[in-house]
Design goal:
mainly alpha; 3-stranded antiparallel sheet; 132 residues; single chain
Length: 132
């Protein structure tokens, strides 16, 4: 049995809280522009989308290394490991997969939309017009 504590595992962005989205819709419907809430929801969605794209890479055999963000390789064999040639990180592949399974991170048919959002969302500037 593998001890999770001995391996550095990836951390994925959490789902957006329904209360955040509800507050955003309510403030927009009242004509109130809450820039802080817009940033909060926008950056949370941006982070979640990045995680979804990284999980997609992992599912296609190119898991991002949690140490240096390079694409790791997966060994062949009965007990495969994900290994990063860039920084030397390694982890059992089964343990890595468990970090994203059943967490709603599979983008599936939404991938083009997720990619477009990540490309279009400018984390370096504020967007207010067009959100409400």
């Amino acid at each position: 049995m593998t001890d999770k504590g001995t391996y550095r595992l990836p951390v994925w962005a959490h789902r957006l809280r329904k209360s955040q989205i509800e507050r955003l819709y309510q403030s927009c419907s009242q004509g109130f522009v809450d820039e802080e809430l817009i940033d909060e929801v926008g950056f949370a969605l941006y982070s979640r989308c990045l995680s979804m794209l990284e999980v997609r890479e992992a599912m296609f055999g190119r898991p991002p290394c949690p140490g240096c963000d390079a694409a790791a390789q997966i060994d062949d064999g009965p007990d495969p490991f994900a290994r990063c040639a860039n920084c030397g990180w390694s982890c059992p592949w089964d343990l890595y997969k468990k970090t994203y399974q059943r967490k709603g991170l599979f983008s599936g048919g939404l991938t083009p939309f997720v990619q477009e959002f990540v490309t279009q969302f400018p984390p370096h500037s504020r967007i207010v017009n067009g959100w409400c």
